[in-house]
Write the C-alpha cells for this entry.
Amino acid sequence: MRTPPYRHLLVFGLVLLFTFSTSAQTWRQVGPPGGDVQSLAALPGGTRILFLGTSDGHVFGSRDAGEHWELLGRIGANHDDVIMSMVVDARSANTLYATSWTLSSHGGGVYRSTDAGHTWQLIGLEGLVVRAIAEAPSNPDILVAGATDGVYRSADSGKHWARISPEKHEDLRNFDSIAIDPHDANTIYAGTYHLPWKTIDGGKNWTPVHQGMVDDSDVMSITIDQNDASHVFASACSGIYHSPDGGANWTKFKVIPKDSRRTVHILQDPKRPKTVYAATTEGLWKTSDDGANWRLITPVSWSILSMVIDPENSDRLILGTERLGIQVSDNGGQTYRASNQGFSHRRIVDAAVDPQHPERALVVLTSNFEPLLETNDAGRTWTPLATGLKSGPPRHIFASPDGWFAAPGPGGLLRYDASKGSWMAVNQVSEKSVPTQPRRASSVKKVSTQSTKNSPPKAPASSAASTMTKSTVPFHAKVNDMAFSNRAWYAATEDGLLVSRDRGLNWSTVSLAPAQQPAAGASALTTASIRAVRTSNGDSYVWALTSRQLEVSGDGGKTWISRNLPFEPRGSLHLHPSDENSVVLASDHGVFVSRDTGESWHQANLSELSIDDLASVRNAVVVSTAKGNLFLSRGHQQTSRSSKLSWSP
C-alpha cells in the first residue's frame, strides 16, 4: 500500500522511511540535491564565504567557497517570500542585507541579519516589493534599495530610510536594478521596468539615461566597471548594452540571439576588463573581446538566476540556477560541476517509496524540465525518469509491487517499463455491461449482529450466473490514489473505483452497491469520485473513501457497506486503516479514529485541527498540519482496543 503523499509530508515521508528504524526521531536529508537559487552574495574581496537565497525565504551559507552548504535561516513569515537580492557588508561577514517580494500579498521589505544569516529582522520598506539593494563601495554605511514605488536610501546601515526619488513619478517606479559608483556614493544608476535613470547628487535630481536603448526596455542588471567608472554595462529584455560615458549613450552588443536576451545579470571579469559574462534564462554567454564576439558556455537549457565571479581567481564562476542549484566552473566556463552538498531545495509535489525496497523512491518536481527523479540508494544519487511523459509533471505517482505508476494531470494512467526505459500508457479499461438476463439471489445468509456491526458482510450467493458482455474504452479517468494487494490492484478515480486482477494490464469498474441497507444517512453508490483507497495485508478488506462517506468491503470488493463520516466533508481527506476494524481519518476537521470499521468515531486530542496530510510508517501514524507542524502517534496497532491514541509533536 502506498503512503499517501501531499505537501508537507512529501519529503518528510521519504526521509522517515529511510531513518525510522532508530529509536529516536533521527532526520537525514536525502535530496534530491539542488533547487532554485534566486540570489547569491559573497563577502567582498573573495568567495570563501557565500550566501544564497531561495524563492521561499530560506537562506543557505557556505564557508568553503560553495563546496558545502548549510541551511542557516529564513526571512519573513510566509512560504512565498522570494529573496530578490542579497549583499554582504564589506566590513563583516556576519552582517547581511536581503530584499524580498511576498507573492501572495505583493509586498516585501528589506531585512538584515547580524549573525551570519541565522536570524533576520525587517528593517525597512515593509509592504513594498523590493527587488534590488546595493551597498556603496566607498561608504558601507550607505545602502540603496529599489522598490516598486521608488528608490530609497539609508545612511546608517538600514536603521533609517528615506525616499530619494520623486513620489508618484510616472516613470521613476518599478525598479529592478541598482548600481552605485565605486568612488562616489552619490552617483547611482537605477533600472526600471521601462528604462534606466541616473543621479549624481544622491537622488536630489534624476536624469533618464537611455540614448541608444530600445524604448520600453526592462533593465534587469547594471554593472559599473571597477577600473573605469564611466564604463557601464546594462542588461535588458531588449538586449545587452554598454556605455563608455556614464550612461549618456548606449550601444547594444550583437551576436547573442534574441531568444537569449533576457539577461538577468551581466558581470565583468575583475581581472580581465574585456571579458564579460551575460547570465540569461537560456544559458551563460561570454565575450573575451569587449563584446565583439560572444559564445554560449553552458547548455542552453540552463536558466541562470544569479552569479558570482571569484575576484582572486576570476576563472572560478559560481552560478545559481533554476532547478539545478549551484554549478561551479574552475576554468572560465569550459566545464562545470554541481556543488549542492547540503543544498537540497527542490519543490516536491508527490513522492512514492517502494515498500519492498525502501531505498528506492520516486519524486515529482514542479518542473517540466526535470519532472521525475528516482533514487535506488536511499537518496545518495538521483536519476531523471521522465522519458515518455507527455503532459508535464504527473499529479500523482505510485509504487506497485512491479514498479512505478504515474497519473497524468489530464487523466489516464502510465506504468514505467524498465526494460524500455519509458513510461507506457495503460490504454484499456474493461467495463461490465448490463446483464442480459439478470437474476437476483433468492436468499441471503443471515449474519450475526456482532459481525454486522464490526465487519463488512461476505458476498451473498447468486442463484444463477448472469450472461455478461464486455466493452473496452480508453483509460481516461483522473486517478487520485492506488492500492495494491496480492490478488487485486485498485485505482481510486474521479469516475469511480477500478480494479485490476492481472497486475495492472486490464482494469474494470467496481460497483459499490451494498449487500445490506446503508447506515442511517449514508447512500448507496455505484459511481462516485473516490478520494482514496486502501487494502489490508490479507487481501479481503478494501476501504474506499468518497467525499461523503467511507465504503468498506470484507470480501475483496464483491460487496460493500457504507459508513458515515464524523463530519461534513470539506477540503482534503486522508485515510489509514491499521487493521480490519481500526481506521484513522484526517481532514481539516482534525484526526478521527474508529475501532469498529467506521460505525463510530472518536476525535484525537491534537492541538491543531487543520490537517494537510497523513502517512503511516511501520507502527506509527504521522500527520502534518496547515501550520507546517508534524504530530506522531506510535504503537497504534498495539493499542487497537483503546479509543485513544497518544500524539506528540
